[in-house]
Design brief:
Elements lengths: L11 H11 L9 H14 L9 E9 L2 E9 L8 E5 L13 H11 L2 E5 L11 H16 L10 E6 L1 H16 L4 E7 L5 H4 L14 H12 L23 E8 L3 H13 L4 E10 L10 H20 L1
Parallel strand pairs: 3-4, 3-5, 5-6, 6-7, 7-8
Antiparallel strand pairs: 1-2, 2-4
Helix pairs in contact: 1-2, 3-9, 4-5
Length: about 325
């Protein structure tokens, strides 16, 4: 499809064509096995080598008789680096440690931080709250293990894209409620924060080429089943009080139905006295981080994430 009605940034039409070759627009209508196979093919088609000097280590966090798989990324030449806990996107249904490997590795190289990527359990085999439970297990394990791993346990932040952005925001809320671990930042990349549940009367942002509201409804059905919870961990925009949350870096895309989730959350954080960097990038679509080497605008979004992450850690 050409998507002529959208004023897309240079390189994004080519990105869409390449994406559709692996992951069709009707992917949420496929069987779960087919959808996952298509998504894995999409991820492979955009796979890149990690930047020189970035090393990785496979780890796990104990979780009551099972383990949450983790991947630790270390930057080159940085002693006792701060660390980012990264939750991948994929509608809570797709993805894993490999799906966002290059993105996380490049973020580590650019920001000069370490990162721990979380392979949380996926829906529908594991319904909510399995995802936030695994992410929380990973975060608390990281806080305990950071110093023994040679990381700066006093400078931990959370990050995630799309569904992973929801998990990162929920982790910040959960850490505030528990008064530990202390987080120095949250990096939210076109996050799914539940605006349709927090403000059902609000006119939604239009569907975009990379994601539609019907897609989100399909993902929510897989995640929650027939009964959607009405709590702030599931939908961070339902949180009544956002004071004393960690500073935030939030990016969004113009042609993304989740665009306003980011804008409203940024507004509410700022109103609660939380330092926020928020930018909506013109001409971009959901999932455009994979286009960071194809589109100057997507590259600029990634550069802002890198710079914003650096600033969060420098200020801590």
């Amino acid at each position: 499809m050409a998507f002529e009605e959208f004023d897309l940034a240079p390189g994004i039409r080519e990105f869409l064509a390449r994406s559709e070759a692996a992951y069709p627009l009707n992917a949420t209508e496929l069987s779960l096995a087919e959808q996952r196979a298509c998504y894995d093919a999409l991820c492979r088609s955009f796979a890149e080598d990690r930047p020189a000097g970035v090393s990785v280590e496979e780890l796990s966090a104990p979780a009551g008789g099972r383990a949450v798989p983790l991947r630790l990324y270390r930057p080159a030449g940085v002693e006792r680096p701060p660390v980012l806990l990264y939750c991948h996107g994929g509608g809570w249904v797709l993805g894993g440690l490999d799906s966002h490997d290059a993105v996380v590795a490049e973020l580590v190289a650019g920001a000069g931080c370490a990162a721990v990527s979380v392979d949380y359990r996926l829906a529908p085999e594991h319904r909510w709250p399995a995802q936030i439970d695994d992410a929380w297990t990973a975060l608390t394990w990281l806080a305990d293990a950071a110093e023994s791993l040679g990381l700066d346990g006093g400078r931990i932040a959370v990050a995630g894209d799309s569904a992973g952005g929801q998990l990162a925001a929920a982790l910040a809320l959960k850490a505030r409620a528990a008064a530990a671990p202390r987080l120095v930042g949250q990096v939210l990349i076109y996050p799914a924060l539940g605006l349709e549940f927090a403000e059902p009367q609000r006119a939604p942002a239009p569907d975009g080429p990379g994601l539609t509201h019907a897609d989100m409804a399909a993902y929510h059905l897989q995640l929650f089943g027939a009964t959607v919870p009405r709590d702030a961990l599931a939908h961070p925009l339902l949180a009544g009080d956002l004071a004393n949350l960690p500073p935030a870096v939030i990016v969004a895309a113009e042609y993304d139905p989740l665009r306003d989730d980011a804008a409203v959350y940024a507004e509410r954080l700022a109103a609660a006295g939380v330092p926020v960097e928020h930018r909506c990038f013109a001409g971009l679509i959901h999932g455009c981080l994979r286009a960071r080497h194809m589109s100057p605008a997507a590259g600029a979004m990634f550069a802002q994430l890198v710079a914003g992450t650096r600033r969060l850690f420098a200020a801590a």
